[in-house]
Amino acid sequence: MEIRFSHVTLTPIEDTSFVIPKESLTAITGAGKEEALRFMAEAFPTKGNIYYNGEKKLKRNLKKYKKEIKYVGVDFEKEFSFENVYEYYIYYLRYHHIKVKDPSESIYNVLKIVGLEEKVLNDNLSNLSSSVLKRFQLSLALLEDSQILLLEEPFLSFHEKEIKEIFSILETLKEKFHKTIVIATEDHNLIYQYFNYLVWLKDKMVLSGSPEELYYQVEGKDKPEIVHFIQMVEEKKGIKLDHRKDIRDLIKDIYRSV
């Protein structure tokens, strides 16, 4: 599902227009990114409009889009008093009126997608590690088969290996299940390495497009470390290196150049 911002105020940018492509893995970064996520979810901008596949977001069709859009915040906020993971899933389905043929099967399916084992269903939420809790939080968002997933800084609790696993999950959701995934983050290294589209709220301007193109075109310090290094080598040593995303490939290029 395509998302379009039309003349929206995103503090400190007063007039913001950009498009988030459908079935993309899009990063949004810079001042105003959290506000943008809220506008894509349930809130309405004070100025301007949001469009989903060309349809204007209005109060009368908000219920429709609430089913199509799921927001995953930085922290997991319990809606219910249940501690047992399986009981929480079941009540979540009932409370949000999510109709499925077989609740247990739906739960097992989302567990598989996010890389959790079935034994976690017997655990208490308070005993889950921060990374497992984040996967659980994501799995809840997948129960309703929504078309748009909005995630705010989801990688704070993960180490490098887990981050790769999560991006593999997100890529599968995008390619196989045709989700549009929008993630608010300030981690430019991750944006450059994993995302295929970037909305950059930078210096009261909006830049959008391929992360690789933007990072090499725009001046400033807010860039991935590998981009800084490649540009420094070209500037100071006169050696033009390929625009690599993996440091191991870059090291091979340097050895060949030397």
SSE pattern, N- to C-terminal: EEEHEEHEHHHEHEHEEHHH
Biggest sheet overview: 6 strands, mixed
Summarize model confidence as the mean pLDDT: 89
Structural category: alpha/beta
What is the CATH architecture annotation of the largest domain? 3-Layer(aba) Sandwich
How far apart are the termini? 47 Å
CATH class of the largest domain: Alpha Beta
CATH topology of the largest domain: Rossmann fold
Count of separate DSSP helical elements? 10
Helix content, binned percent:
40-55%
Strand content: 15-25%
Net shape? globular
The name of the CATH superfamily of the largest domain reads P-loop containing nucleotide triphosphate hydrolases
The low-confidence runs, each spanning 5 or more residues with pLDDT under 50, are none
Provide a quick synopsis of the model.
By secondary structure, this protein is of the alpha/beta class. The protein is built from ten helices and ten strands.
Describe the structure.
The protein is built from ten helices and ten strands. Helix 4 packs across helix 5. The mean pLDDT is 89. It has 258 residues and is α/β, with parallel strands linked by helices. The radius of gyration is 20 Å and the shape is globular. The protein has two domains: 221 residues, Rossmann fold, CATH 3.40.50; 35 residues, no CATH class.
